[in-house]
């Protein structure tokens, strides 16, 4: 029996921090200005990322410094660093 290999799909794109924020805001379904785990999961799925449930949970844990289980506007830079590692999004000046 052969074992299939698969590659992790990554966006591999450059964005400014403002473009990254605007991209994420498209997934803020309830318009509360915060990104929930479900909203982040939808964002990662939109770019074809594998294991989006696990990755979104991990992304929230890494970026959410105040522990409210949401990524607020002041925590988006933390999420941008995570998105660089996981999705291949590079934040440029």
From TrEMBL:
Domain of life: Eukaryota
Record-level Gene Ontology MF annotations: calcium ion binding
Pfam families, per the entry: EF-hand_1
InterPro entries on file: EF-hand-dom_pair, EF_Hand_1_Ca_BS, EF_hand_dom
Domain EF-hand: 15-50
Keywords, sorted A to Z: Calcium
Protein name (Swiss-Prot/TrEMBL): EF-hand domain-containing protein
